[in-house]
Amino acid sequence: MLYDLSKLLAHSYKTMFSTETIERLLKVIPHNETYSSPIKGLVMRHADQPFCYEGIIQEPSICIVLSGEREIQLGEQCYRFDNQHFMFCPVNVPMRGEIKYAEPKKPFLVMSMKIDIESVSKILLANPNLADDIQQGDEGFAQWHLDESLKNAVERLLLLHENPKDIEFLAPLIQQEIYYRLLTGEQGGKFKAMVSNGSHTKKSPKPPIICNNILVKPSPWKPWQI
What angle do CA 130, 168, 107 make, to 5 degrees? Predict the structure, then answer.
């Protein structure tokens, strides 16, 4: 039986973020470029055609695919991210990635929010009951399920772009809520460990890596947030 590839790809675009939310965002952000938001630490990337990138270092951040899908290649491991999961990087991580499908009617859209260690530390100091269950370890990357409470907070943060005058006051409050959701979610132990270890230290660039039998040649490492 033959399948219509376009229909299968379209079906994969089912998202936790509503079509209305994506359409509202697309009206207020630049297209086909990396956009540094006026919201502190927030970067967004829109593309209406496939692309790939390599030789980058993902800074400590959370990254959420809002529309579409991307593959991340980290060492010998490959991860696929859609809008049901988010990427959690507690340390600087060298990686490469690929967006295999994007078009004007179904663009790729991702957000990255740099983690503010100082803000997270303040939340922990104000809430001593959160300062347990620290998960020590050397893993500098994780894939987590995007739950409804975190999604709602992120959505409200992103839609502040519709009213830029509200950003200065409301964005820090919503970002604090996002940190709280991370601290109390399934990734909380790792998030607390990142704060306790001051994990903004950089990892050394790695030699050429092989993923899916594709050799990735090393290139000058650049800080990145998408």
Answer: 85
